Every structure is written in structure tokens, then in C-alpha cells.
Amino acid sequence: MDFVRTTPPRPVQVAAVFPELAPLARPAIRLHPRPGSPSVRDSSVGGPLLWPAGEPWPHCEDVHLHMDTGFRESLTDVRLQRRLQSRWRPDDRPPAHTPEEEALKERDAARLAERLDAGPPFPADCPVPLLPVAQLFLCDIPLLRPPGQADLLQVLWCPYEHEPDCKPATALFWRSAAEVDDILATPPEPYEADYPGYVPEPCVLAPEAITEYPNSLDLSPELQRLLEDWNRWQAAGADVDSFYAQYPREFYSIHLGNAPGWKVGGWPPWGRTDPYRRHCAVCEAQMVPLLTIASWEWSGGEGRSWAPQEDQAAAHADARGPGRYPSQPTRVEVGSTDNMQIYVCPRSPEHPHTDLIQ
User: Fold this and answer.
1) Whole-model pTM above 0.85?
2) What is the pLDDT of residues 277-301, one digit of tens each?
3) DSSP H helix total and E strand total for the chain
4) 117, 39, 107: which is closest to 76 by C-alpha?
5) In this structure, are residues 162 and 39 in contact, taking their beta carbons and an 8 Å threshold?
6) DSSP β-bridge partners for residue 137
7) Which domain holds residue 181?
8) Where does 10-117 show beta strands of DSSP type E?
9) CATH number of the domain that residue 113 is part of
């Protein structure tokens, strides 16, 4: 980890204004992924995995209906388009492919032609290799609670949407890094993805420990009423713009509750649905948030207060135009620019996990 990202201090100390919320504070680690070239020995998003050569690469065995959504692209095309966009400036003509990129396109086209010549190229029951989503080492992310001697979490997904929730199917693997000697050099890849947003950009991480408070929807009705009491905010001397006098709970939700972006632990983001508890299919324990896979590191407008101090200039600049994605460094997009929350059993991380789009 050779760079840092720092969340700006919150405009109000939550527990000072509302001591009733202090017991609800939770630790979280914001991952702050940024495009880079991680190695198999690095914690990363979308990077190569420390995968044993003797262990089969995971595939999705579900039936995949290969209908033309208008968005489906080969991984080669997704990556080439991103390279072009990264070189595109608003006052320039669209850049041309380099000779190396043209060769990649030709190989991709030849590969597709071979599959077409061989018959239906994408049988619905053909197993699909999973794509790496995240690799997290315990030494970088101490909030992880791995089973046994494991010190490494690897998260992969199938880049096709799966019913009934129209989201990628996820898989988790815990392992001991020291036990991996012979590393799989060239993992298989799916030919295509349902959407470019299901192809993570390789990113290095700058983990940052923070303290989080719940999304306002996770609070009891009594605590929600406290947040809506403007007199309480004023009596505590909180420096809150009078713009929020009619809706002080909105100030809490935007600036003080759960942090946006990729993170481990903390509180879940809600919004698409009201909160509901997830229970382990094996032991019925209430499951806890493990990893948030986020479409955006911060939102626009007031939500930019969560942009790290090192990124504030980029967050407040006009970031429109091809190749400019300061708040979407991973290029991941789930749902309608939502978050995918992965939950695990607190009694045994090896019990089946579950996931949820919010």
C-alpha cells in the first residue's frame, strides 16, 4: 500500500449531539480502490488472485440465457473501450487504437468466429468462469474474521444476471496465503459480460479504518424522531446549515450515517428497500455485513463530503466526459448504480453467505 486516502472529519460529532447513538457505532474499513496494477500478493479489487494451480477455477453452473440485451460485450471490448476513454480529452478527437490494441481486437474477433463455426457459441448450460471481484488479506483488512488459519478472502462473481434479483451470482473463498506455492498463471475468463459494469477495473487499495453509524432507516422510531428534532441539534451547538431546519434527518443521512463506497464491516446501505434481517441458512444466526461492493465512491452534491481529502479537487471539478470517473474508479455498476452487500454468518464464515442489492 503506497498511497493513502483520508475521509474528511464529519461536520458534526454524532455521539456528542446524540449520545443515544453512541452504542450503535461500528468499525468499518473503507477500501478506497483506485486503478492500478495489483499483483497476486496484493489486496485488490478486480486484480489477479493468489489461486493455487492445482485447484480448479470456479465456474457458474447455472443456466445462462444468452439474449441480446444491447449491453453485452466481450471482456476484450470492455477493456479496450476503457483504454480509449482514458486517453480521450474533451477537446480532442476520439483516440485511435494502438497497434497492440488492434491486435487484441483481431484476436477477439477470431475467437468469436471460431466459436460461431463450431456451432451455437454460448450454450445456456455451458459453465461460465467466474471473474475476480476482490482479494483481501487479513494483514491489510484486520476487520476480517476468517475461519481457522485462513488470512485471505477472495470474492468472485458470474458476470451474468441471475434470477430472481437480476444480479451477478457471487462466490467466496477463504484460504491461507502461506499454503499457496504454485500459483495459477492464466485463469480462464468468461467471453462476455451482461453489462460492462460487471467487469471490475484492476485497482489497488488504500484501506482506512473509520467509525460508522447506522443508516437512519436502521434506527428505531424513537431515535428517528430524535434526529428530526431541530431544537435538539441547536441545543447541542451543532453547526448545521439552517437549510436543514425542516429536514434535519436528511443531514444525518447524507453526512453522518453509513459511509458510501467499497468497505468491509460497518452498517449496510438501505434505500431500495427498508431494512430486513438476513439469517444464516445453517444455524439461523443473524448475518452481518462483510463487504459492500459499490457503484460509486461518493455521490454528487452534498454527498461529495465523503470524498477523501486527497480527492476533493477531483470530486468538485467538472468530471463529465469520456474517461473521467473519479467517483467510479472500479467501473463496477450493480443494480441501478446501487450497492451489493455481502453478508456472512458471525458464528462461522464458512456457512453459506448471502447478498443483497441496495
Assistant:
1) yes
2) 999 999 999 999 999 999 999 988 8
3) 7, 16
4) 107
5) no
6) 152
7) 14-357
8) 26-30, 34-35, 44-45, 59-60, 73-74
9) 2.30.320.10
